[in-house]
Structure formats: C-alpha cells, structure tokens
Write a structure and sequence with these properties.
189 residues; 59% helix; single chain; mainly alpha
Length: 189
C-alpha cells in the first residue's frame, strides 16, 4: 500500500473503535488507517452512509446485506467478505443462504431466497465490477417493481454504487487482501 497508514495512536480518538472493529472482524486495518488521513471521509462513511443508508433508509437491511455480500463475493475482497458475513448473520440471514450465495455470474438459488431478495441480487449483478455490460433492462425493472418502489430501487442502486466504488478503491490501493476471483489485478503490481 502506497498511501500512508497512520498507526492506531495517530488516528482521531473517536475513530479508534473502527480500527479495533476491523482488526477484530477481519484482522485488516489498512483501510481504516488510510481513511483516517481524511477523518471526515471515514466519519461520513460510517456515521452517515453506513448508519443512514446501509443500515437505515427505505429498503430492508437484510436485502442490503444480501446484495452487499453478493457484491463482495464477486469482487473477491477477503476483508469485505469476513466483515459482511458477520453483518449478514446479525440481520437474520441464515448460514444456508450465505452458503448458497456465490459470486456473479453464479445463478441465484430461488429455493433459498425470496423473490424480492433474488430480484435485488440480480440488480447487484448488473453493478458488479466484472460485469462491464450491466444494464437495468425492462424485464429486471419490472421484476424489481413487484417488490420495490422507485425510491427503493434508487436507494439500492446508490448503496451498491458506493459499496462497489469503495471496494474498487481499497483493492486498487492494495489495502485489503484479495481472493483468487478478484477482478482487480493491476499490470506490474
């Protein structure tokens, strides 16, 4: 990682709980310490985005946790997968569902997921990094509309866009360990 990562003692005291949580959950703290270079961004991510949109908002948090895990499994971020699995289980997603949730382009097992969950994950499949031809077509939109209103579809899309963008940044900057299926493999790295 090229971005300076302050030590735990160098980051603002009100953010050390995030360092400790990242270390406890995934054994990786570079992401937190790099963001601590701009503490206002770290605060925005956890105090605004995570609390108000990821774990708040219009859409059931279970749906957002499923799409977040589908995204991270596809992106091959080992840190994200550990963290997201803990949050998914805490929201009531079963281990059976987590085990059935593979990375894109794996099919979504409609015997394990509700129609709304499956529709949201198909939406996530259009946003994942390796799907450069992703598209919200009329068929998927109609499927989403049977479960979500337009405000919820927008919320899901923006949440997934922020998660995907942050993940790509972490992977590009080599802040988190990558799994074998990670599509971010810089030439010359």
């Amino acid at each position: 990682m090229l971005i300076y990562a302050p030590t735990r003692t160098e980051i603002p005291e009100d953010l050390t709980y995030l360092y400790d949580r990242a270390d406890e959950r995934a054994g990786v703290t570079d992401y937190i310490t790099a963001l601590a270079n701009a503490p206002e961004i770290l605060r925005w991510y956890y105090d605004t985005f995570d609390k108000n949109f990821m774990h708040g908002g219009r859409v059931d948090v279970r749906i957002k946790e499923l799409v977040r895990l589908r995204l991270s499994m596809t992106h091959g971020c080992a840190f994200c997968n550990k963290w997201n699995t803990i949050d998914a289980l805490a929201t009531g997603i079963s281990q059976e569902q987590i085990d059935a949730l593979g990375p894109w382009p794996d099919e979504i097992d409609t015997d394990v997921f509700s129609p709304a969950e499956a529709a949201a994950m198909r939406y996530a499949d259009q946003i994942v990094l390796p799907n450069m031809h992703g598209y919200l077509d009329d068929e998927l939109y109609a499927e989403l509309k049977t479960h979500f209103d337009d405000a919820e579809i927008v919320e899901l899309g923006v949440v997934m866009a922020v998660l995907t963008g942050f993940t790509k940044w972490m992977l590009v900057c080599d802040m988190v360990p990558k799994e074998d299926n990670c599509p971010i493999n810089p030439v010359g790295a």
